Amino acid sequence: MNIAVYPGSFDPVTYGHLDIIERASSIFDKLIVAVLENSAKKPLFTVEERKDMIKAATMSLRNVEVDYFSGLLVDYMKQNDYHIVIKGLRMLSDFEYEFQMALMNKKLNDDIETLFMMTNSKYAYLSSSIVKEIAKFNGDISELVPEYIALRLKEKLRGK
Amino acid sequence: MNIAVYPGSFDPVTYGHLDIIERASSIFDKLIVAVLENSAKKPLFTVEERKDMIKAATMSLRNVEVDYFSGLLVDYMKQNDYHIVIKGLRMLSDFEYEFQMALMNKKLNDDIETLFMMTNSKYAYLSSSIVKEIAKFNGDISELVPEYIALRLKEKLRGK
Amino acid sequence: MNIAVYPGSFDPVTYGHLDIIERASSIFDKLIVAVLENSAKKPLFTVEERKDMIKAATMSLRNVEVDYFSGLLVDYMKQNDYHIVIKGLRMLSDFEYEFQMALMNKKLNDDIETLFMMTNSKYAYLSSSIVKEIAKFNGDISELVPEYIALRLKEKLRGK
Amino acid sequence: MNIAVYPGSFDPVTYGHLDIIERASSIFDKLIVAVLENSAKKPLFTVEERKDMIKAATMSLRNVEVDYFSGLLVDYMKQNDYHIVIKGLRMLSDFEYEFQMALMNKKLNDDIETLFMMTNSKYAYLSSSIVKEIAKFNGDISELVPEYIALRLKEKLRGK
Amino acid sequence: MNIAVYPGSFDPVTYGHLDIIERASSIFDKLIVAVLENSAKKPLFTVEERKDMIKAATMSLRNVEVDYFSGLLVDYMKQNDYHIVIKGLRMLSDFEYEFQMALMNKKLNDDIETLFMMTNSKYAYLSSSIVKEIAKFNGDISELVPEYIALRLKEKLRGK
Amino acid sequence: MNIAVYPGSFDPVTYGHLDIIERASSIFDKLIVAVLENSAKKPLFTVEERKDMIKAATMSLRNVEVDYFSGLLVDYMKQNDYHIVIKGLRMLSDFEYEFQMALMNKKLNDDIETLFMMTNSKYAYLSSSIVKEIAKFNGDISELVPEYIALRLKEKLRGK
Questions:
Q1: Which of A145, C107, F29, F140 could form a disulfide with A149 if both were Cys (CB 3.0 to 4.6 A apart)?
Q2: In chain C, how many domains are there?
Q3: Residue ranges making up the domain that contains D52
Q4: What is the CATH number of the domain that holds D135?
Q5: Nearest residue, CB atoms, B103 vs list C2, C114, C121
Q6: Model confidence over D72-108: pLDDT tens digits?
Q7: What's the CA gap between A107 and A116, in Å, rounded?
Q8: A63 and A29 in contact (C-beta within 8 Å)?
Q9: Kind and range of the H or E element at D97?
């Protein structure tokens, strides 16, 4: 069985991520969306909240599972005997960072292959940070994240 | 009347910004230099100080006005019925960030057009951060900012 | 009166170009679409044919005029007392070439200002060459150029 | 069954291509290496010769097949009911061109997904053109292409 | 005598840096590795520790000296009558930042020339930050830094 | 003695090249400007003419010699026991091509080191092709090449 892992912070998941998830899930037998628990980056949502939001948004995709990991991606891959990483590319800066990560991960574990998919050009501008920035100033994010995520984001920002 | 808005942090304004201001003011009927009040970025100068310095440096340009905004640029544009944003491009990284911002702003408000001007290649190296870094170590900034700004910068850094 | 010139080969004009033309014409009092007569590049369509197709596609835009030039853009600008050039930017390679051209034109004539607009991300993939390549193999170009241009392109390619 | 298509000119196939072929063939059930018959580009080797060389170099990989196509990749994919394209990325310029192609192909046929793999950094400098350039001046190409390909290349260049 | 200065944070020195040091020391009569004392960046190792590690790793290179500086590189160069800066380039983002720095340094002192060397593509993925990130999670760094540095890094991270 | 080689087409030499030649000649004991005889590229000037123009323009620099080579740069370096190549970098596209060439040359001969210098930002727009393009249309090239080169270029273009 062909299993691919799509790692990320997903703080929160956007339509850009969901575009990759949907397309990748149609290529591989199973797709694991793996939320990185990175305390250093001070995410807005907890790992549990981020997992819940991804689950809600991918409910209709039967072969998508949501998991989390901390530490190095290569260790997570090895422990679960996963070999394929999926990453979305938007623009140049993505490319460079992802290039470095892919080379590094291959160096740390030669059994890991990273496959890249181009994000739909419709979402070329989209990132979790931008969504949070706009939400902070009550801007309209209805075309950037699903309605449920928009609600959770507003709640979270109001609660601060 | 053709009105353009040139937004930025201007902490402080440099000869690179002034080059854009001068050239843009000769194209449009009015140019609004809009200082972003961004408390998260911890600017060295207050909004008032930054506005004063831009006013002093653009005194000879009759159709230049200095204003400020907080929050989203698109909201500021809408409230004032402005439609044209001017941005200066220096190098690649500028381009990517500005590309993302322009797409996002167009998404948030389709009535906004962003026009880009190339910064004079003489100032390709120049940014407010570099000016502050050099001033901090008493380096020579006389070709980077007008004399008055250089004085204000030295005062401010000494006062800290 | 604010007049801007949008120069290019337009061999043939695409929805990407038309997006820039429409948006630029709403900013400036008049927009001149200036077709470059470049015999060295061996265009598929003659200058007259290219002008006709642009005229047909921009008929509804009252302040758009179609013209042509040969030789250097700066000479054309000077002879007509035009000062503003509009260019569309799609991706990185565009940026670099256009950056070089803008610097060169400014060097040759300091009175010329080049303003850049981001092409709609929907058309990030689109160029006249790609349209011709697809048309050559009878691919579907109905979302790449207006119907009239598609017809002219098919005629032209069949006639060869 | 998961089938991926790796299209290219392969004029001739290099260790850079073979690295991608080997790694892609370990991910997918079947990998079709599809040689583009592009008479406009005036290849050094005929399609048959290029296919032969790839077959010789991939003999040990059971799930690799070699095919050819002319015209548009999307048409070839459709006729054979293939849905996944594999492309190798080396450096920035690759990225931009491939980005444009992937977007265009997706536009022409929404059922096609392009997946990208990073070429091993060992081969970052390697292209078919560079191999031909070095071979032309009798430079050492033994670390750039398999021995059999090197022989065929020398024969071909001598025969000219 | 031709003296070159290789400035950096070296927190800690990696095989990527050592590749540049070795190659640059074979070109110039003397190479000064100049450790930047930058308290703002909160380095993991003190200047003394970073100098010690570089000394240990370059012991066999007779014309390499290790020094440190704080403040502006141009001031350090001037005080010691040095004129040549060596920088390693890995990827695009390096290039842009280094380009800006080289232009700025030339502006501040026209007697300074910056020469760039390409980092071996084997180390394209390597940076001090990545080494620290991997070491933090007990990943294998034996091919990224010399054994002695790996030990010092583990000690330091454990002591925290 | 430290000898560096600055290879190129120099068809014709521009102020951008001369900026690199002057600065490189102040760093190395001897600088060889090596004109590439590349018949495939159909240069405007013969190798002898290009050499003459460089000699005329570098007369005041005592440690600059002008030579030519055909075939591979690495072979020319080896035959003359040269080890250091100097290249000028202007913008991103330069960087990528030069990166590939430097890696390839290092691969073909490990004794060769390529050092890069940033072209003065004043000449960021400048290339031999652009100079020829402007001269063809009688544009002003007096700030792009020395007077003697401008004359030779006009003669050559008239004679065609």
A1: A145
A2: 1
A3: 3-159
A4: 3.40.50.620
A5: C121
A6: 999 999 999 999 999 998 865 677 778 778 888 888 8
A7: 18
A8: yes
A9: helix D92-108
